[in-house]
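Q: Can someone sanity-check these two? First one:
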Amino acid sequence: MAEAISLSSGLVALVAFALKSSSVLYHTVDSYRSHPKNVRDLQEELEALAKVLQALSETVEQSKAIDFTALKLPLFRCGNACKEFDEVIAKCSSRSGGSKTSFRDWAKLKYMGDGIDEFRRMLAGYKSTINIALADANLRQSSVTAERLEAYKVMIKNASADLEDHLKSIDEKLESTFSRAADESDEDAIQMRQMQEERSSTQQGLAICAQLSAHISRIQPLLAADRGQRSADARAMPPAVAERITREGLEECQDTLSNTANRLQKHLNSIMDRLMAKSKTALSSPQDAAELGRLQEEWETARLCLDICSKANENVTKVNINVFENVKGDEEVLQFFASTTGKIVHARDISLGPRGVQFGGQLSDASIQQISRDFSRAEHIALTNTTPEIVTPADQAGISVFRNRYGPGFKLSSQPSQGDALSSPAGQTGHGSESSTPPKL
């Protein structure tokens, strides 16, 4: 790994760096014959990580228009973490004699104060974040099935929960390091403790903003759904003034919360920078200072990964699905399970009679109307068993009046058989003898 890689490197270089570092670490672990369960789990995680990184590399090369710059820090940390853990294994192996057949010191491996399981979970966080970024890009470029969309939601939820746990662990380590640095610094001890209190207060403010924003996001779709239901019942009645005021007020609240969160985040970053600078000066050991630097990078990375998950969750909640389930059609029925607005259509357990016809997928309004007219006309011809007549404009006007009042109807025989309940006088002509019984559709 002689090449110089920094956070300022291009995205392609960072993807390659992370992929190479993870591959080198996998081969290092695989070169030892002694593999406890947690080591085998680490190998599986490294394999999965390599596949996701390879998919990201291909996507970046093929789709130049997609912006993945938010992944630069996670990729940088992922590559560095794999590289540094590989160095930890090499040092531990050299102390135990360097034998790859008898190495038994896996339990002694520590990275950022944690063992193999915690390191594996950290890699899993990088992998999940990259996966979510890839799925989010795909969601914005093409349609997905309802099943994949639901799996995507679950993936975001699980990744967010794991990242929050990881961030909490990093926070606790930082708090411990800052306290130790304050104890070792006589001059800046009071100031460092004040900054620690301000840091905690700022994080609490950010948590409150996030909770309120999430609550408003849950309310807004409910308001829209309620308005849509009442509009349908009232024949598309325009929304009430109170609804508009409520909607605008919620949007203003979201904007205010977003601005407040941005200001708090800048304040938190400033406090963290000052705490880091004073702590590194106060810590006597260069190793402690280097460890603190890694903790800071990981803290920033975890927060960024959570932000990526949050934005992906916002995007996925905007995707609407038309769901049709457990629908049973009659013997002769024309069914449409279609979207005219590009929404996802999910149909399951749909049954039709032997002469039923069904259309599904993405169709335009004009296509649905034309198909309906064509099948209605075909059914009408089949029921009358006659060739359609050419009618005059006057006759057509009479038919239109009849249909508007009674429905399509069908033509009676010109010579009704005996026993017909409805008959016409002999010699009657024209189109006034249509029945009001419509054909089945």
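And here is the second, same format, sequence then tokens:
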Amino acid sequence: MPQVEVPFEVTGWEPAPLELGEPGAVTFGRVGLRKTFSGPLTGTSVVSMTSAAVGEAPVGYVAVELVTGTLEGRTGSFVLQHTGVVDDGAPPPSGVVLPGTGTGELEGLRGTMTIAHGESGAVLTLDYDLP
């Protein structure tokens, strides 16, 4: 299974409150965001993310992300589903390529992914299989 490391930048961030449950220490939010990818995957994505926070600090999120671009010379789109916990020692955010979502030359794409944030920026690591 090939693996690629793809640097990305968040190019748009549109938060919206989400009223769930009783008011209290935990708050929920919804964010629409956009990303730009470079390297072995060039293109853009739109993301719908829901998060939980304690005070001002986010503690976890779930997201679906429509990626459109070219992966190692093959053009199309696909959907990532991922989740993460914000806590010291927590594993990095991770997820999957949703089966059946690949289009164009990316039809049949399957795989797993992680996201890392470091001093040099954010990186998507994608392990994938493509017929």
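A (reply): Looked at the second one. The chain is about 0% helix and 70% strand. The radius of gyration is 15 Å.
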